[in-house]
Design a protein that fits this description.
Elements lengths: L4 H16 L1 H16 L7 H5 L2 H13 L6 E4 L4 E3 L9 E3 L4 E4 L1 H5 L15 H4 L20 H18 E5 L17 E5 L5
Antiparallel strand pairs: 1-4, 2-3, 5-6
């Protein structure tokens, strides 16, 4: 699924979140319009990476709807994770034991994100800078090799859509709370009328 399904999944949910949150969509459209005006109506790499709100929207979309839910790693050296609560037991890990990291659980943990169910791109302006709790692509030397390309692809697609369309929910849409591959997300695109 690397590369195609993950991008499709991320884009689908980000577009859906923009339809659910028109104020976010409007702010993102305003940033896009301003960026295009200062770049002679041209979107290039430099312009794309200079858009902080777009970056926040993509990060928040990936946090809420990660294309994967766990990371797996092999233990490189034996260690023990000491219990913190009375009812817990110590966990002993041996070399080559598999460890699963449920990053999706961290993305929804109140300890790391205030109001974690809410789509709030502004949280990356001030609240959240801990890279070890934002893991849609993993982290460290074994993170997703295509993560930067994937983010760039998502940003480019979003800017192309938002230049020409307004995203709205379909009338018959039932708010989709599930985060599974293949779950239908219904939106409509309405052409933007530009003043000439």
């Amino acid at each position: 699924i690397a590369g195609v399904e993950t991008i499709k999944h991320a884009l689908s949910y980000i577009i859906y979140q923009l339809a659910l949150n028109p104020q976010v969509q409007n702010q993102l459209s305003a940033e896009l319009e301003s960026t295009l005006q200062s770049n002679n109506d041209t979107m290039n790499y430099k312009a794309l990476i200079s858009m902080p709100y777009l970056n926040n929207v993509v990060k928040e979309g990936l946090r809420l709807h990660s294309p994967t839910t766990v990371l797996d790693r092999r233990c490189a050296q034996a260690c023990t994770i000491n219990a913190k609560l009375p009812h817990e037991k110590d966990i002993k890990l041996n070399v080559n034991d598999w460890v699963w990291i449920p990053h999706d659980a961290m993305h929804y943990d109140l300890k790391y994100y205030s109001d974690p169910e809410k789509f709030n791109p502004d949280r990356y302006d001030h609240e959240h800078n801990n890279n070890y709790t934002f893991l849609p692509f993993g982290i460290g030397p074994r993170n997703c090799i295509g993560s930067r390309f994937a983010i760039l692809e998502i940003k480019l697609f979003l800017t192309e859509v938002l230049q020409h369309y307004e995203i709205q929910l379909c009338d018959n849409d039932k708010l989709c709370k599930k985060r599974y591959f293949g779950e239908p997300l219904w939106v409509q695109l309405y052409p933007k009328i530009k003043n000439v």
